């Protein structure tokens, strides 16, 4: 899955959920000030910004050049590189913690990616990841509308980590210890339907790609179904994610 889109498009599409999620996720992971932390699949920097503002020494990596450029501009103190989770360009045991927010389900090889996160984390350090729950995550309202018109559409509920226990299985497979998995959530108010809908047309992720494949009439029908289900606004979306942490 490619995210070769402008960072501003991603921020309007997912940043509105990812930024508040970062604080909840960091608290779950137990990251403390002064620790060296790697943000894997950092996107435009929601988690990295939160970690840095709370005193962590942050490094970050992402395969999307626009996102890497955005982090360099936004967070000049962060060592950010272009690369993938499956081939982390760091030495063994360099970090106190390695974290992946909303990333595991887009890894080409999640087991290899998490194993790499464990490799670069010191013994006794923490590896943590979170992924939107398929039925109740941030994109559930969108896919619920899609399935009214296209019941067989493949949504993100089938991706790695999108259901309870999937992350635990991955963490155990790579040998992490004391694995804990819990649900975490953010509650986001959308002031108007248009504010919620428009970012879905930007081509970001599976949802954006789905919309861009539709012709004008099909897109209008989907927009109409979503509006009927959500209303004109304001409305709230409670977005739930599964989060797991384990010890190296």
Automatic annotation (TrEMBL):
Q: Which SUPFAM superfamilies match?
A: S-adenosyl-L-methionine-dependent methyltransferases (SSF53335)
Task: Specify one Pfam family.
Answer: Methyltransf_11
Task: Give a yes or no for keyword Cell membrane in this entry.
Answer: no
Record-level GO BP terms: methylation
UniProt GO molecular function: methyltransferase activity
Keywords associated with the record: Methyltransferase, Transferase
How far does the signal peptide extend, from start to end residue? none
Q: Which InterPro entries match?
A: Diverse_substrate_MTase, Methyltransf_11, SAM-dependent_MTases_sf
Q: Where is the Methyltransferase type domain?
A: 38-128
Under PANTHER family, the record lists: METHYLTRANSF_11 DOMAIN-CONTAINING PROTEIN, METHYLTRANSFERASE TYPE 11 DOMAIN-CONTAINING PROTEIN
Q: Which family does it belong to?
A: Belongs to the methyltransferase superfamily.
Q: What is this protein called?
A: Methyltransferase domain-containing protein
Taxon lineage: Bacteria, Bacillati, Actinomycetota, Actinomycetes, Mycobacteriales
């Amino acid at each position: 899955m490619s995210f070769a889109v402008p960072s501003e498009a991603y921020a309007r599409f997912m940043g509105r959920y990812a930024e508040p999620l970062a604080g909840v996720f960091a608290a779950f992971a137990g990251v403390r000030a002064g620790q060296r932390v790697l943000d894997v699949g950092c996107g435009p920097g929601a988690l990295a910004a939160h970690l840095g503002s709370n005193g962590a020494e942050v490094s970050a990596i992402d395969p999307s050049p626009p996102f890497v450029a955005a982090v360099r501009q936004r967070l000049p103190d962060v060592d950010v590189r272009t690369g993938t989770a499956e081939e982390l360009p760091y030495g063994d045991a360099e970090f106190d913690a390695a974290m992946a927010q909303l990333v595991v389900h887009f890894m080409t090889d999640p087991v290899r990616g998490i194993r790499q996160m464990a490799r670069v984390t010191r013994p006794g350090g923490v590896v943590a990841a979170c992924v939107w729950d398929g039925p109740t995550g941030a994109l559930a309202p969108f896919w619920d509308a899609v399935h009214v018109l296209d019941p067989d559409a493949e949504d993100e509920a089938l991706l790695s980590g999108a259901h309870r226990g999937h992350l635990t299985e991955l963490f155990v497979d790579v040998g992490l210890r004391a694995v804990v998995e819990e649900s975490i959530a953010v509650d986001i108010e959308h002031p108007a339907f248009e504010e919620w809908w428009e970012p879905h047309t930007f081509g970001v992720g599976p949802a954006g790609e789905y919309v861009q494949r539709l012709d004008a009439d099909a897109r209008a029908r989907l927009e109409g179904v979503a509006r009927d289900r959500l209303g004109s606004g304001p409305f709230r979306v409670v977005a739930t994610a599964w989060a797991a942490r384990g010890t190296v």
